[in-house]
Amino acid sequence: MGERLPKWKALAIFSSDALSSVGYGPEQIALVLAVSGLVAYGYYPYAFLTVLILLAIVTASYTQVARANPGGGGSYSVARKNLGEYPSLVAAAALFADYVLTVAVSICAGTQALVSAFPTLQGREVSIDLVVLFGILTLINLRGVRESAHVFVLPTYLFVLGMLGLIITGVYQALTGPGPVFPPASLARQELDWMMLALVLRAFANGCSSMTGLEAISNGVPMFKQPEHVNAIKTTYWMSGLLAVMLTGISFLLLHYHVMPIAHVTMLSQIAEQTVGRGWFYYYIQMATMLILFLAANTAYNGLPPLLSLLAQDGYMPRYLGMRGERLSFSNGILLLSLVAGLLIIGFNGDVEHLISLYAIGVFLSFTIAQSGMVVHWWRQKNRNWGRRALVNGFGATITGIVVVVIAVSKFFAGAWIVLIFIPAMMFVFKKIKKHYLDMAEQLHLPLEEGPYSIKPVGKHYVVVPVASPTRVVAETMRYAKKIGDEIIALHIATDKETARRVEEKWRQWNPEVNLVTVYSPYRLVIQPLLHFVEKLTRRKQPEDYITVVIPEFETRKWWHRLLHNQTGLVLRTLLIFNKNVAVTTLPFHLQK
Amino acid sequence: MGERLPKWKALAIFSSDALSSVGYGPEQIALVLAVSGLVAYGYYPYAFLTVLILLAIVTASYTQVARANPGGGGSYSVARKNLGEYPSLVAAAALFADYVLTVAVSICAGTQALVSAFPTLQGREVSIDLVVLFGILTLINLRGVRESAHVFVLPTYLFVLGMLGLIITGVYQALTGPGPVFPPASLARQELDWMMLALVLRAFANGCSSMTGLEAISNGVPMFKQPEHVNAIKTTYWMSGLLAVMLTGISFLLLHYHVMPIAHVTMLSQIAEQTVGRGWFYYYIQMATMLILFLAANTAYNGLPPLLSLLAQDGYMPRYLGMRGERLSFSNGILLLSLVAGLLIIGFNGDVEHLISLYAIGVFLSFTIAQSGMVVHWWRQKNRNWGRRALVNGFGATITGIVVVVIAVSKFFAGAWIVLIFIPAMMFVFKKIKKHYLDMAEQLHLPLEEGPYSIKPVGKHYVVVPVASPTRVVAETMRYAKKIGDEIIALHIATDKETARRVEEKWRQWNPEVNLVTVYSPYRLVIQPLLHFVEKLTRRKQPEDYITVVIPEFETRKWWHRLLHNQTGLVLRTLLIFNKNVAVTTLPFHLQK
Q: Labelling B413: which of A65, A376, A455, B369 has CA 20 to 30 A away?
């Protein structure tokens, strides 16, 4: 994307992930405090204000990331540059978890917004989730719509407008209405014993999910208009400001109406219904919420390929993922992301509350690492103001680090353990892949002074041409084989004596000056007999001899015709590779209709 | 499977699909008659007895299929031999629909049996369905467990024992108990107006789902002990007899207890609970029902590959599916089956009742075609008793044909329309594939008298070797290239000038007597520049010249290392095929660790 983005557009493009968490963040705090038998909404403000303060700290820290990394680059790059290998791999693993959970959580929350508005859909949540995941997001991303970023602008502003309208209306009604602003039930709280404290901590940990996606702008600094980092920082402030206002407004209304959890209906839907009734504005809010949440899920699809590419260039992921712009690489990443997100949705039955337990920990882990990396960055640079800047990031790192521990402990059994196993497991995979590439480089190394011809030249070259019956394709293949080989072997695999006799007869009439070898395969197998034949030939030949199997591949006129061919070649290549000095050549043959 | 099966074993192996329908068949009749506001269980016996008579007719017809086709072969083969192309394609399409729906319906019904027993799982049905489908059945079948048939024996008999035990206990209690055998509510019925008649017909159409799987034995005649067809026929009688007894018993108890639909609890579970209480025997019945239903789903995985293979041999499906025993072919079929079944489960939200509307029509369509084919068969043979035999099958064909119309009309809007669109669509695909193969055969034809050398020999042979940096692999590749080519071109794709200079320097030192061509690719693309280079070369060369691109493929020590390589070769082959006379050769290189 060559075009630079004005701030208003960039805000919409980068903030759908962060802003959409208004759709579930406040609810996630309230859910913990509404545990049956306990009325503890009185603690809501404590949990919520802590989240808000944390938001301010993380925002301040990330404006500095934007300042220091005008080239973009997330917590992985920051850690790699400043903290070394292991922290960067922790960050990469955490980001992986983050992307997968962004998809799973956002889709499930979006579906809940939809189902709240249309109760007939109740009980079909998982099915809807999966249709959105595989039927919409995966397909769109596999098709590879490049300019898709601009699609974000309208829904994001529609959502923000709707939220602000809802909040203004609701707060006005609350302040001018006859009842109390906060009903006593919303202020009730029990004594703060250890169990209660644990509950409030859990509520806070859940609320931290409101902060996911905050790092997006700092990853996209190069896309801003000049001066890039100034504009990026201003946009970050706007995003966090909007997020804070919306979270506060919704929290206010949640307490004002004393919203309690109802199955299949989100709290945001209850708030909207109580404020404006079930009219057009209610449906507008639900649809806008659904839309921004699905768009938030989509951001993960844009975020994962660049991360994979960076990891691949450093040797921690398969090398071919490092080739930018290659469709196939992206497809693999997209499918992997969808598959894992789909498994999570099925495993957690589309339950946002349970998925949230996994979500926040990865996010805050990568926050912590990025901030720590920034401290080292400022300390190394020792520019003007480096002390103050290091202090801001150091404070951010400390606080987010503490949050990681709080989440890990308070949500351990609720699912955080999965992430705590996943991250080291991923690191193990990263290291294993790296080791393989290092081993390989060593094996491939050829001392320059030895020269390329320290290896003996090729001896005899056998060429095997499989023949079903003498056709034009066989003729062309034989012509190519004659050009490259010393000895040509035409191989016919026959299912019965009768066909074998007929093919041999035809071959004699045709007289291509090449011997036809017939091999019998009574069970209609094709691949196995060919493999056996090549293996027998391998044992007969000298070490320097080569065998090439030439297989015609059909280039068809219509795309779907390709599905009707070419499988044999693929299988053969996969199986013949185990033999030393056996090459497989595919020869194109163009069908005219 | 070389071993012949004794009757008791064959019964278990072939009948899990048919017998398992006891798990949902009676319920499906009752569901229609329990539509809110109407109490119409009084019509249950009418619908049910019609199903039972139909069962007798179809059984008699299929014993004759078993007699006439000692080689096995389902309705597709029968139709192809006796009725011609179009009826056979209708049968094939109907069988496709049948297999997919067997998987979907059986899994959903099995999950319902599980959830009925363990109410904590309520609301998670779709997730469980998908885990069973993709996490268990698909994986097991992809692994390709060959001797899996024997796994069927124990669960099938456990299920039959459980059902008989339940029925005997229940009927004894009903007859000896204080209350009436049938409560008045179960005998109530409204006047039979047109609407009521439509309802009873729908109940009957639903009940026909109890007959799915009845054809299984006639497809497997060659697996019986000698005399095969005699044993097969006896086993068919046993299967149908058992099915009839179980269906009747469960229907009796359903009316006796006046079981009404309850969300998340099957009627069979209600019956079991009322008869024996929620003790071990209740859980035994639920688990046995679940197990046999999942096994029934599995039978479709065994049935589809042979059908695909037959269709492929006749040219209606991709040819490579006709190669028996090739793992890849089976995998494609298995994945396709799972995928479509998964989509149906998601689309219908795991609802057995809605899926049933699609199910019965395909089954009865293939019944009808098989029976019609048999009539032609007897008429052509004109053996002893041919008139009587033709009459039996003719009667069967007529009745099942009427049932097809009844189901199609009474369930049209409930989902039968999907199948009625699917079948012609599949036939269109079959015909299109056949046409492609016929076109191809024509293009490949080479008149024998012309001889193989009517085509000009190959002119100059260019060999392109991509070089990242001079390594041992490049050296081996060059050695092969020298053997086969007239002109070798080493091609380096550089992302920046600096690396390019370094590689060129090394190349010069190395001195392999081959020119190195450097192409710049600033965006880290690899495939595109190579394609462009080859295309440029293609334009320069003579029509008879050939270009071969040689790509090393790594054979790795550990299986997962393969995932780290080889992608470039695959992509190149896919893209280079569009150029005339451009071959792609993969050369194996074995890594030692």
A: B369
